[in-house]
Each structure stands twice: as structure tokens, then as C-alpha cells.
Design a protein that fits this description.
Protein name: Profilin
Pfam family, one: Profilin
Shape: globular
CATH superfamily: Dynein light chain 2a, cytoplasmic
Largest sheet: 5 strands, antiparallel
Helix content: 25-40%
Subcellular location: Cytoplasm, Cytoskeleton
Oligomer: single chain
Structural class: alpha+beta
Number of domains: 1
Order of helices and strands: HHEEEEEH
Radius of gyration: 12 Å
CATH class: Alpha Beta
Family: Belongs to the profilin family.
Low-confidence stretches: none
InterPro entries: PFN, PFN_euk, PFN_sf
Number of helices: 3
Distance between the termini: 18 Å
Number of strands: 5
């Protein structure tokens, strides 16, 4: 997944595969990658030293999950992690 942040072409063509499930790519840039499968999804955010991988189940609003994960990433970046 780390390579997808620099070159998202593979996940654009083949999707995001996590825990045996395939998620369709919704958006990818040098900081964040978003995927969806039916009513659930994944959010990947790169910080300076880590990649946060979050899954939200059906019933959770994607925007709410995204906001929380992005805020956690912002905090980790602010403390140089």
C-alpha cells in the first residue's frame, strides 16, 4: 500500500485489497487513499512515519469516518510521527 501513495495506478486498476476483501478506489493522492465496497469502506492516510489504515462498517457515515482519521493523521504529523 505504501507504493500506492506515490503511484496510485495499480489500485486504480485493481482496487484496494485488505483482509481478503476488495475495495473500489474512490480517491487517491499523496496523503490519502479512500476505498469502498458496498456500504463499508477503508481510509488510508500517510503520516511522516506511518500509514493509518481504518475500516468503517455499514451504517457509519463515510464523511464522519474520514474526518476522524484525517484529524488523527494531522495530530501525528504535528508531533513528527
Amino acid at each position: 500500500m505504501a507504493g500506492a501513495f506515490n503511484d496510485p495506478s495499480y489500485v486504480q486498476q485493481h482496487g484496494i485489497h485488505l483482509s481478503g476483501k476488495k475495495y473500489m478506489l474512490l480517491r487517491a493522492d499523496d496523503r490519502s487513499i479512500y476505498g469502498r465496497s458496498d456500504a463499508e469502506g477503508v481510509i488510508l492516510v500517510r503520516t511522516k512515519q506511518a500509514i493509518l489504515v481504518a475500516h468503517y462498517p455499514a451504517g457509519v457515515i463515510a464523511g464522519d469516518a474520514t474526518k476522524i482519521v484525517e484529524q488523527l493523521a494531522d495530530y501525528l504529523i504535528s508531533v513528527q510521527y
